[in-house]
């Protein structure tokens, strides 16, 4: 089972979805905004990938956070920020039978798919 997590208007998510469709790879799309995210899901991602990989500090959402929110970040604080601001999560997140990949690069997708 392949699940692609993201938001539909993100250019990188669009590229990943198009690539999967063009290569006839059956997958489910999980829209962060519409479908939400469970704390257990984000916690599993953080445990597998590290919060530093998932928390997009270059995003507009990050820049809009208060200085207090941006300081002294640890695992739990990062998870809370991602739960409250799902668009701050780097995307897409591809779940390939439990193996997780963040972002989209054609070469990377060709390698593991």
Mean pLDDT: 96
The CATH C-level class name: Alpha Beta
The radius of gyration computed from the alpha-carbon positions, rounded to a whole number of angstroms, is 14 Å
Which sheet architecture does the biggest sheet show?
Answer: 4 strands, mixed
- Give me the number of helical elements: 8
CATH topology: Glutaredoxin
Succession of helices and strands: EHEHHHHHHEEH
Please tell me the total number of domains.
1
The global form is: globular
> What name goes with the CATH superfamily?
Glutaredoxin
User: How does CATH name the architecture?
Assistant: 3-Layer(aba) Sandwich
Strand order of the largest sheet: 2-1-3-4
Uncertain segments of ≥5 residues (pLDDT<50)? Answer: none
Query: Strand share of the residues?
Result: 15-25%
**End-to-end distance:** 12 Å
Q: Structural class, from secondary structure content?
A: alpha+beta
Would you write up a description of this structure?
The protein is an alpha+beta fold and 113 residues long. The protein has one domain: 3-Layer(aba) Sandwich (Glutaredoxin). The protein contains eight helices and four strands, in the order βαβααααααββα. The protein has a four-stranded mixed β-sheet with strand order 2-1-3-4, sandwiched between helices. It is globular and about 45 Å long. The N and C termini lie close together (12 Å). The model has no long low-confidence stretch (mean pLDDT 96).
């Amino acid at each position: 089972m392949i699940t692609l997590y993201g938001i539909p208007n993100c250019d990188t998510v669009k590229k990943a979805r198009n690539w999967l469709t063009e290569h006839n790879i059956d997958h489910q799309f999980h829209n962060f905004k519409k479908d939400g995210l469970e704390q257990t899901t984000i916690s599993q991602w953080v445990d597998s990938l590290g919060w530093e990989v998932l928390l997009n500090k270059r995003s507009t959402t990050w820049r809009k956070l208060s200085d207090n929110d941006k300081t002294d970040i640890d695992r739990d604080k990062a998870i809370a920020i991602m739960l409250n601001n799902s668009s701050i999560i780097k995307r897409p997140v591809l779940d390939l039978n439990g193996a997780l990949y963040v972002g989209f690069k054609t070469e990377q997708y060709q390698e593991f798919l």
